[in-house]
Amino acid sequence: MELQSWVFATCNNTKKIIESLLSRFVVLGVPEYTFEEFVRIAVNRLGKENIERSYLPNVIKENINRSYHNSTMEIIKNLIIHGKSS
User: Fold this and answer.
1) N or C: which end of the chain has fewer CB within 10 A?
2) CB-based burial of residue 70 (10 Å sphere; 0-12 exposed, 13-18 middle, 19+ buried)?
């Protein structure tokens, strides 16, 4: 019986990863998404939380501008809480 295992890793930058480790991975460069793409992704994700989709793009943009220092996950969690209480 032969076992095969896969390891996936992500990073924002490979510059600090030593070559002997990096050589064990296939490096795929993924371009950063635009702000509008992020809003579309967030609307789709938040729509799965039974939140009314029609107001989401504007609320997302407002929350991101107001909470620029927060992480993306914190923003989405705040939107989920806000959307369910509306």
Assistant:
1) N
2) middle
Q: Which residue is listed with tokens 């950063």? A: 32
SS3 78: helix
Quote the tokens at residue 61.
């943009």
Q: How far apart are CA 24 and CA 81, in angstroms?
A: 41
Q: Determine the residue type at 54.
A: S
Terminal CA-to-CA distance of the chain, rounded, Å? Answer: 56
Q: Which is it for the CA torsion 65, 71, 72, 73, positive or negative?
A: negative
Structure tokens at 43: 């609307």
Write down the pLDDT at residue 41: 80
User: Average per-residue pLDDT in the chain?
Assistant: 76
Q: Is the pLDDT of residue 14 over 50?
A: yes
